[in-house]
Amino acid sequence: MREDLFEEDDERACLSLAHWPFDAEHLDRLKPTWRTLVQTFLVSPEGQGLEQFLRQETLASKKIYPPQPLRLLELLDPENAHVVILGQDPYHGKSQAEGLAFSVAKGVRTPPSLLNIFKELERDLNQPRPQTFDASLMPWVQRGVFLLNHVLSVEEGQAASHISRGWEGLTNAILTQLIRQAGPRVFMLWGAQAQKQFSALMALQPRGVQEEPNRLVLLANHPSPLSALRGDAPFMGCGHFSKAQNWLKDRGVSLSWSLQV
Asked: Is omega for the bond preceding 66 within 30 degrees of 0, making it cis?
């Protein structure tokens, strides 16, 4: 799969009926576990409502990002997801969102939250920041970092515009699968929304799953400039990258946070 999703053709730069991500051809690209989960979701009332909403928005010529909202599920199966990072919803500027939480496509200026992630990575592991227009987190995904947003689409220029439209049913099912999947696995929960979602799903699990010893949960504020330095658990200085790396290493999993391919 190409790393650069975005072409001059405007139809391919955003969600379109000509390249609908929920048809059989696109669903066949998903990793088997995720394909079954998505197919089950799509026939549910919540899934049907979401698809109808997205079709109506697309037919109304609204620009919806990213062009492939299920892209992450094509790239990384639950067995190989060693770290899970939860985001909120995609970036809402043209050609920014690439279907991976916090990540932006190549050639797009680094947004403030992602810049703070790079600053903390530099402080924590002395890793140089990437170039301003080369901030895709695809190398992380290729090494087992699952970058999941709570909501998987957004209207251009309208942050959080697709909240409560149905995506939550799917992403809760995805996160539940990752919680139940045998580890070792690190969950990095940045901000109140990610922590609330994770806690709510954990409360529904049987005691054996809740007490799984092969799971590490790391909490911090969201890396947004509005919250990165605030609260009892500021993001800046949290040391999550080295903590995850060392914990996984002790359990036989090697993880590099480098953005070099």
From this structure: yes
